[in-house]
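Quick one from the shared queue. A colleague (R.T.) flagged Peptide ABC transporter permease as missing a structural entry in our internal table.

Convert sequence to C-alpha cells.
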Amino acid sequence: MIRILVRYSVLFVLTLLVLTALSFVLAYLFPGDVLVNLSGITPENEVQRDALVRQYRLDQSYLIQFWHYLQQLMNGNWGYSFTSGLPLREEVGLALPATIEISTYAMLMALFIGLPVGYYAGIRSYSLSDRTINSVSLISYSVPVFWLALVLILFFSLELGVAPLSGRISLMFDIPSVTGFILIDILLSEHIDHGLALRDALHHLLLPTLAIGTITTAAMIRITRRSVIDVLQKPYIAAARARGLSRPQIFVRHVMRNASLPILPLMAIQITTLITNAMIVETLFSWPGIGNWLIQAIYQRDYPALRIGMLAVSTLVISLTILVDMFNRMLDPGRERFERGAI
C-alpha cells in the first residue's frame, strides 16, 4: 500500500508540474503583448515597462520565469483579476466551492438513484423492464446537458414558475461565505430564518442539480447494469445457484460486492464529464461557479484569471480522479497489485 501511495504521489506532483507549465505557456499564446497580458497594464514609458519586466522576470530565461511563476503559486500569490481587481486566490476560493457543491449533489443523485436502478436492471437483464430502463438511460445520456438545462428552465421556471431562473439564493438573504457551500453557510449564519433560507437555496439548487444529475445518473445506471450482468455470468454464481441459494442471498453475498468493484474506476472516468457538465450548466443558471467565472473572464479577456482558472479546474479533476482510484484499491487491495498508478 505504501508503494502505491508513493506512486500516486509522484504521479500527482508530475501531473501538476505539467499543468503548471501549460498554464505558464498560456501567457505567451494569448494575443497581444505578453507584459500586458500578465499585468493588465499598458506601460506609458520605458521606466514603467522596465519595472514590470523585472517584476515578471521577462528579462531572464524561460526557465527562470517558470521557476518564479511556480514560486508565486506556491506562496499563494496568484495575481489579480483585470476586471475586479481582486486577488485571484480569493475569486477562485469563492467560485470553485460552488462548482464542487453542485457537482456533489449531482453525484449523490446518481448514487442514490443510479445504483439501485442499475442493480435492478442487471438482475432483470434482457427483460421488458430492463430494456425500458436501458432505453431511457441511453436517451438521457445522449441528451446534451445545455439543451436539457434549457428545457428545464422553459418548463419549470417560465411555464410553471415553481423554480428560480438563476442565482444561488435570493437577494433578500445576506449569507457570508465561510465554507463556500451555500447550505452549510446558511446553517453557520446568524440572525436569519434558517428554514426559509434553506428552502430558498434548495429551490435554486433544484434545476441545476437535476440537469447535471440526470446525465450522471444515466451513466451510473448503464455502468452498474453492465457490471451486474458480467458478475451473473461468473462460475461462482452458478455454483451458488447449485447450492440452492435464493436470489436475494446470491445478490447480497456475491453480486453486490463483486459488481461494485468495477464501478469505482469507471466513476473516476465520469468525474471529468461531471465537472464539465457542471461548468456548462453554471452559465445557463448564472450559478456563481468556476465555469461561469471563466466564461466572464473570456468575455473580459482577463488572461491571468483564465490560466489560473484552468489550473484550478485541472487540479480538481486530477485530485478527484486519483482519490477515487486510491479508494478503489483500498477496497480491493489484490487488484492489479503491481500495476503502476495511472489516471
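Confidence is low (pLDDT under 50) at residues 337-343.
The first helix runs from residue 2 to 29.
Added to the table.
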